Fold this sequence. Notes:
Elements: E1 10-11, E2 19-20, H1 22-25, E3 29-39, E4 48-52, E5 60-61, E6 70-72, H2 74-84, E7 88-94, E8 108-117
Antiparallel strand pairs: 1-2, 3-4, 3-8, 5-6, 7-8
Bound molecules: zinc ion.
Amino acid sequence: MTARARGDIFRKNAESDEYVRFAEAFPEIAELSVDVDERGEGNEELGLRRFHQGTVREFFNCSNHRCVGRGFRMGDLLRDMTRRRDTRRDVEVRCQSREESGGVCANIFRVSVRIAYRPSSPAAGSSGSGPLRN
Ligand SMILES: [Zn+2]
């Protein structure tokens, strides 16, 4: 079974190429809600898409069929939010990839993120690597 098939879909951290499960990449997140509204080519019927911690991914793919890459770097946004312990963020960003022609992709992602954090460990600085019981 490949790592990805096990659900190892998030980069461990910004410097790492290692992919891990959501719970390992973001152990501090108790609940996550992400609304994605993409404007532009190829997304006429998608409407508002809603994700949670079980369905969110490192990237949201762009719907523009001429676009070669990954549209929105969700993992980067989540890593930034968790570092600051932000509970909500609303961003509107252009697709971060390009069209096959090399031109800029015009699709726009409106992304709304809500995060509920687990209570901080009173022993901050300890290993914090014990198993979490749900
Ligand atoms: Zn695109």
